[in-house]
Amino acid sequence: MSEFEDNLWLKVVREHGDELASNARTAQKHRRASRPQLLAGTTVGLAAVATAAALLFGASTSSSAFAVTRNPDGTVTVNLMRQSGIAGANRKLAAMGVRARITVQAKTPPKLVCPGGTAPTITFGPASIPNSQELVIAPDQPSAGDGATLKAGSNGSGATGSGATSGGGNHVVRTLSRGGKIRTYSGADNHTVRMYCP
Amino acid sequence: MSTATATEVGVPQNLRGGALAEFEEVYRSNVGLVAAYFARRCREPHAVADLTSETIVRAAGSFGAFDPRRGSARAWLFGIAAHVWARYCADVAESRDAIGRLAGHRALESSEIDELAAKIDAQEAGRKLLERCSMLSANERAAIELVDLAELTPKEAAAALGVPRGVLRMRLSRARARLRKEHHIDE
Question: Where in the sequence is the domain holding A51, given as residue range(s)?
Answer without folding.
Answer: 3-196
